[in-house]
Each structure stands twice: as structure tokens, then as C-alpha cells.
Amino acid sequence: ELGDFPHYMLKEIYEQPEALENAMRGRLDVGDATAHFGGLNLSAQQLRQIDRVIFTACGTSYHAGMVGEYLFEELARVPAEVEYASEFRYRNPPIDRNTLIFAITQSGETADTLAALRESKRMGHTTLAICNVVGSSIAREADGGVYLHAGPEVGVASTKAFTTQCAVLAMLALYLGRSRHLSAAQGEKIIADLQALPDVLRETLRCHDRVKAIAAKYADARNVLYLGRQYLYPGALEGALKLKEISYIHAEGYPAAEMKHGPIALVDEQTPSVFLVPRGAVFDKVMSNMQEIKARGGPVIAVASHGDREVAAVADDVIPVPDVPEYLQPIVTAIPLQLLAYEIALLCGCDVDKPRNLAKSVTVE
Ligand code: F6R
User: Residues in domain SIS (predicted)?
Assistant: First the structure.
């Protein structure tokens, strides 16, 4: 089943272009410039009345939910928030009946996410699932939902589930947006961006050799920081999670500008920072955050737009990625971060597919 790959994690990283094709197949409607989903079970009226969305999830799926907040806000203009399922299940937040709740989960069996879904249904809210495993508990108990169609994810570290979750959330935001203010022309542009994405990821995967060389330079780090802003703030959290769970190196993700409020005290010559800095609206801001780290002697690895000389002049090492609109950058930049964690974990002699203390699905509270 592994084919030519030494580990499931690597196989699943390389499967992402195809996983995205499968996640989007039959769902993009060029004619109406929108997306369609078979199993949402929402009437047109319900859809129009939605005025708030809550995502609930754990771990990597929670990070996808954070990307979802930005997507729903920007593309659909619907207020959205995400909450850890383990917190949501014990809270009693005021939620009105036009709020839609989504449980995001690869396995569909995560105990806290399942409990959050049940609690939400008990209160009478429409609760949908964004899920990979067909027929899983969460898929069965939700009022409706969207399957990722990413194929089986065997490696404990989630990879293709994250990128397909982000793509499904973008399609849902498009769908909600088109039932509101988004014009047909804007919808068409989003569809074209999404359709181009599988090939963009094929191109992105070519960074592997570069990432391998960089991993060799930093594999003995004890602490690594991951920094990004806006859509790439959750991207930074996800990069840090990948590294810590499979290499056991301490890593933290932060919104880049938040560093100066405390965490910058951690920076020294032995503490590399991974900056997510492809071109976009906050590029200059992230560059000045990068300068702040350099000024304190911290080594910088930058994930940047192909051929970006401004970044190359400051960063110690650069991983080039193709340019995409900002709302798709978390998907594209996930690839070098997954590869970096994988290569460093291998150099540390870790079992990347079965990291210590972890199970593929967490079915206990
Ligand atoms: C990280 C990872 C975990 C899961 C989390 C939720 O790589 O795999 O953080 O993302 O346990 O699992 P699901 O998505 O199955 O609910």
C-alpha cells in the first residue's frame, strides 16, 4: 500500500494534489459561479438566514477551522468563530437559531468533537460535519455535511486532511457568499483559483530537495518558532504542531506581530524562526517582524513567493512557493511545513508514522 514511499506521512503529503481534485470533483459549478454539496440538507431559506457560523474541532482540524474564520468573513461576510471541541462541549454560549455549527474532523471519531456535536444538537442547533471517514460516528450523527474525499489518512500526523479541509471551507464560503453579496464574476475567479490549485501543489512539492537541505541545518534545534499573519497565522500554528508531534522538538506558532509582546525573549542564535511570508496585503508588515527577529540574532527560514529577492536578502534560508491568492496560501504553505517536519523527524530518528504517546483518533475525552 505504501508503494515507493518509505512512510505513510510522505505518501500522504504527495497525495495532496489528487486529494484536492477529489475534494472538489463535482462541487464547482462554473455556470452559476458557485459550489454545490450533496449532503448539506439545508433549504434555500435556511441558507439565506444563516447569520453566524461556529466551527468546533481539535488539533489540526481546529487549525483548519481558524482558516475557516478568515474565509467565511472575507468571502461570505458571515461572522465565524472556532472553538476547541473540548471547551465548547462544557460551555453554555448564547447561540441563536440562525447560527450554523460545523464539526470539523478527519476521523469522525474524536471523542471531544463528537460530544460537542451531540451537545449542539441537544440544544436544537443545525449541526453539520466536515469529515473524511465515511460512515464514522460524527458523519452519521450530524444533520448533514461534506465529506473531504481525501482518501484514507494513515500517518498519525494529519496532512492531506488539513489541506482538503481548507479547500472544502473555501468552497462552503463561496457557496454562502454567492447566496449573498458575491458577484458572479467574483465567484468565477474563486472557482478558477480553486481549479488551478492541484497543479499549483504539484509545483509546490518540488521544494522537497530544498527543504531536505534546510532540515539538515536545523535538525538539532531545541526550539523552533513559526510565524505568520492573517490567513497564515493558523498556518504557523499548524506548522509548529507538525514539528512537535513527530520530531518532539518544542515548537510554537504565533501571529508574527505578537512576538514583541513577550515571546521574542526566546529568540537567540540557537532558536530558528520559520516565517510564512508569501506576497500579500501584510507582506511589508511580516517583513518588519522578520527584521525584529534578525536584529536579535535569530536564524530565519522563510517560506516565500518564488524569486522574492527582498525576502532572500534578509532570511538565512528560503523555501520558494508559487503565488496564489491569500485565502489559498494556508494550503500551499502547508506543504513545505509538512516536509520540513518530516525531514527533521527522520534526522532525529523518530517514527514519523507512529509518534510516541499519540493515536490516530483520540476516542477518549
Ligand atoms: C495532528 C493530528 C491531531 C488531529 C486531532 C483531531 O496532526 O492529527 O491533532 O488533528 O486529534 O482529529 P480529527 O480530525 O480526526 O478529529
Answer: 43-182, 214-355
pLDDT in tens, 326-340: 999 999 999 999 999
Could you tell me the pTM of the whole model?
0.98
Q: Kindly give the pairing relationship between strand 28-29 and strand 34-35.
A: antiparallel
Q: How many CB atoms lie within 10 A of CB 42?
A: 18
C-alpha to C-alpha distance for 332 and 306, rounded to whole angstroms: 12
Q: Distance from CA of residue 150 to its chain's centroid?
A: 14
pLDDT value, residue 27: 98
The whole-angstrom separation of Cα 279 and Cα 311 is 10
The owner of cell 462554473 is 30
Task: Report the atom number in ligand 1 closest to the C-alpha of 59.
Answer: 9
* pLDDT above 90 (res 359): no
How far are the Cα atoms of 149, 167, 234, 273, 353 from residue 67, in angstroms, in the given order? Answer: 19, 10, 6, 21, 25
Rounded to the nearest integer, the mean pLDDT of the chain is: 96
Q: CA–CA distance from 46 to each of 27, 93, 94, 115, 124 (Å)?
A: 20, 21, 19, 24, 14
Sheet holding 144-147, edge to edge: 80-84, 52-57, 99-105, 127-131, 144-147
Enumerate the H helices of 58-183 as residue ranges: 59-71, 85-88, 111-122, 137-141, 160-178
Most ligand 1 atoms within 8 A of CB, residue of 8, 12, 60, 136 to mutate = 60
The rounded Å distance from CA 315 to ligand 1 centre is 32
At 360, is the pLDDT very low, low, confident or very high (cuts 50, 70, 90)? confident
Question: If you take atom 11 of ligand 1, which residue's CA is the nearest one?
Answer: 59
Distance 156 CA to ligand 1 centre (A): 8
CA 17/CA 331 separation, integer angstroms: 11
pLDDT of residue 363 exceeding 90, the answer is: no
| ipTM tops the 0.95 cut | yes
Rounded-to-integer distance, Cα 42 and Cα 38, Å: 10
Q: Note if 360 is an active site residue.
A: yes
Q: Check: CB of residue 227 under 8 Å from CB of residue 274.
A: yes
pLDDT at residue 1 is higher than 90: no
Tell me the C-alpha distance between 362 and 111, whole Å.
Answer: 6
